[in-house]
Amino acid sequence: MNANQSKRVCSKVCVRMCVASIPLVLTVIYYNENTNLLRYCHYSYSTIAWVACLAKGRVENVSYSYKGTSTSDLIFRIFNALGQISFAFAGHAVALEIQATIPSTPEKPSKIPMWKGAIGAYVINAICYFPVALIGYWAFGRDVEDNVLMSLERPAWLIASANLMVFIHVVGSYQVYAMPVFDLIERMMIKKWNFPPGLPLRLVARSSFVGESHTFLMICK
User: Fold this and answer.
1) d(CA 181, CA 203)
2) Would you kindly state where each structural domain of the chain is located, as residue ranges?
């Protein structure tokens, strides 16, 4: 991970720590009211990425060969890639909480609409991200950055807009992703260590999780 990537991760950590201290109820209200904004950001930055790569075309002396690396590094890269794919399509525990709110009867079980929703979500996810991966690799080959927007560089205003959309989407969706984990950690701290509910509990529990998870991410990068 280079210096620029480290700065971006650190800025995201700071923002997420601040947002994570907000009560879960307010987070849910914010997310519900801004779902369309997050969805728009998701569709827009992925479309900008692959359309800009297609418009730019292949760079000079593009290479699709494997980078020279050690066997251990190659194995790590393979498992890292498989982990990222699994993470993108693994679903989330929040889905179970959503399903619990859907009316369910023996004649119309809730698993049917949930299954349709999950399939639709995976299809949309694939439509958004597969073109980015395929066209990005076609344009830049093995030298493509982890964030393909960094490889594009120009036009600067378009890349800046796409990165802003990524930032808004990631910060907003992360809170929903982390909700079950926050709840689990807080309940454990209240039960085992008699922490009083409130802001101090949220700051300790959530900031610790955000910091540790992003530290692990930086090590893997």
Assistant:
1) 14
2) 3-220
